């Protein structure tokens, strides 16, 4: 399928959805997550989204049972909130989708709980830098592989690995649209980037190997070698000159 081109109105609506996600993350930044169950965190995220007259996109999407994906430590993505208790030293990856008047933004952020290991701090820093460099390549006239190459180069320079079974994607009127945006250079479609394209760019970075497995719940993706994983994501719109981060969490 062709990559959808969004007009100015659509981008403004996606930006409203993105600002709601930024509000969610700002609230979580102020919270003490230590001792909280992941379902409690999910419920607060759901409430904030509804307070802004929006819909949690993930709830019931392809059968996903909760409003946010909350993944801990060696879990890469798609963790189902439940009765697990968050504790000091954890890396908590929170992935949120918001639908506002039919338009969708998607973003993720990794939250360290209390004092985390030096290796975890480095993993977070590298993943954030990889996202920053990937976003920098989302420019008119460049290609999807330019985004992929920028992310892979940053990650592998520091001795980490990018997950290969999961990718970024287009987003806007559907949660997952064309194109797929790998976090490594692949042999797939290498479309030219054009103004009006909107991308969810999301490096998922492991401290060990890139191999992953799916948990028995059918959703949670974990590192095969039990290594730590980190995830940051933003929704970005390509403009005639440059781009704009619609979720504005990359530098937070």
Structure description:
With 252 residues, this protein is of the alpha+beta class. The protein is built from 4 helices and 15 strands. The strands form 4 sheets. A 5-stranded antiparallel beta sheet has the order 8-7-9-14-15. Strands 1, 2, 4 and 5 form a 4-stranded antiparallel beta sheet that branches. A hairpin with a 2-residue loop joins strand 4 (91-100) and strand 5. Helix 1 crosses helix 2 (38-51). The radius of gyration is 17 Å and the shape is globular. The relative contact order is 0.19. This is Methionine aminopeptidase. It catalyses: Release of N-terminal amino acids, preferentially methionine, from peptides and arylamides.
Inertia-based shape: globular
What's the arrangement of strands in the largest beta sheet? Answer: 8-7-9-14-15
Question: According to CATH, what is the class?
Answer: Alpha Beta
Detail the poorly predicted runs. Answer: none
CATH architecture designation? Alpha-Beta Complex
Tell me the distance between the termini: 34 Å
Domain count:
1
Q: Give the H and E element order.
A: HHEEEEEHHEEEEEEEEEE
Give the arrangement of secondary structure elements.
Elements lengths: L7 H23 L7 H14 L3 E2 L12 E4 L2 E3 L13 E10 L2 E10 L5 H19 L7 H14 L3 E2 L5 E3 L6 E5 L16 E4 L2 E3 L5 E3 L6 E3 L5 E3 L2 E5 L4 E3 L7
Antiparallel strand pairs: 1-4, 2-4, 3-12, 4-5, 6-10, 7-8, 7-9, 9-14, 10-13, 11-12, 14-15
Helix pairs in contact: 1-2, 3-4
């Amino acid at each position: 399928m062709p990559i959808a081109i969004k007009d100015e109105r659509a981008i403004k609506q996606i930006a409203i959805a993105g600002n709601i996600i930024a509000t969610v993350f700002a609230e979580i930044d102020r919270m003490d997550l230590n001792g909280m169950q992941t379902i409690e965190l999910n419920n607060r995220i759901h409430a904030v989204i509804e307070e802004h007259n929006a819909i949690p996109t993930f709830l019931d999407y392809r059968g996903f049972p909760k409003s946010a994906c909350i993944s801990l430590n060696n879990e890469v993505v798609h963790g189902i909130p439940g009765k697990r208790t968050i504790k000091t030293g954890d890396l908590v990856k929170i992935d949120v989708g918001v639908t506002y008047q039919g338009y969708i933004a998607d973003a993720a952020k990794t939250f360290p709980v209390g004092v985390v290991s030096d290796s975890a701090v480095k993993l977070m820093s590298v993943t954030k830098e990889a996202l920053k460099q990937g976003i920098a390549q989302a420019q008119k006239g460049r290609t999807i592989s330019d985004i992929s190459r920028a992310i892979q180069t940053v990650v592998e320079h520091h001795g980490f690995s990018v997950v290969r079974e999961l990718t970024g994607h287009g987003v806007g009127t559907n949660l997952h649209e064309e194109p797929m945006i790998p976090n490594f250079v692949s042999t797939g479609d290498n479309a030219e980037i054009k103004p009006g394209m909107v991308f969810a760019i999301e490096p998922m970075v492991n401290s060990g190997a890139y191999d992953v497995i799916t948990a028995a719940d059918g959703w949670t993706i974990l590192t095969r070698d039990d290594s730590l994983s980190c995830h940051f994501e933003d929704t970005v719109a390509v403009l005639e000159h440059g781009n704009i981060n619609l979720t504005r969490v990359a530098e937070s």
